[in-house]
Amino acid sequence: MPSSLTPTDDITQLFDLISAQLNLIQARLDLKPRLSSSPWLPLAEAARALHFPSSRALRAAINRGRIPTQFVSATTGESGKRRTLYVDVEGFASHLRNK
Question: At 87, which helix (H) or strand (E)?
């Protein structure tokens, strides 16, 4: 009779192994910082997401009008001289897919 219990034991061990691996994956995901729900990314992150070689290249594309203004947001610092750009990467990618 022990041979009839072996497949059940093997399945139980396999489920235990899968459960442990899922717990490990979940723990790793919990350690990663959560992304904000805002679609606006700073220029450097947007450049990486849109596969631009640098944030300067993305800024040049924005200044030349290659990226529509509805996907670009700018804020100024307290002194009013420094401008920080944010790009709606998801919106712009959707715009390119539907173009």
Answer: strand 83-88
